[in-house]
Specification:
75% helix; 118 residues; globular
Length: 118
């Protein structure tokens, strides 16, 4: 049981960092750097969830698990934007959710294809 918990630590830490930092920065969604940051942020978040689910990237990552991980990341992206709407000076953005989702989908697809090719 303890071993199963420890493999989730990167995901727990990463989600906390995303949640905290999203309330500390100002919305500059038109910036290319900000778009790339969102893309990478949620792509790496998806990787952290894959690590927790499979105990490593080459574990048992099925298509069904990949879809569930994607759904979880999208729900988290929406909740992160909802959280931002309560922070003074921040605005929730549908564009940010779309970029977050694209980052997660891209990284999950790469992991799935890499694993399938092995």
């Amino acid at each position: 049981m303890r071993r199963n918990f420890f493999r989730w630590i990167p995901t727990i830490i990463y989600s906390g960092v995303i949640f905290f930092l999203s309330g500390q920065t100002h919305n500059t969604s038109s910036s290319t750097v900000n778009v790339l940051a969102h893309f990478l942020e949620f792509g790496l978040f998806a990787c952290a969830i894959v690590w927790g689910v499979t105990s490593g990237f080459l574990g048992d990552l099925t298509l069904k698990r990949t879809v569930w991980i994607f759904v979880a990341v999208v729900i988290y992206a929406v909740s992160d934007e909802f959280h931002q709407s309560f922070v003074p000076g921040r605005e929730a953005s549908v564009g940010d959710v779309i970029v977050d989702t694209a980052g997660a989908a891209s990284f999950l697809l790469l992991i799935y294809l890499f694993k399938r090719g092995k």
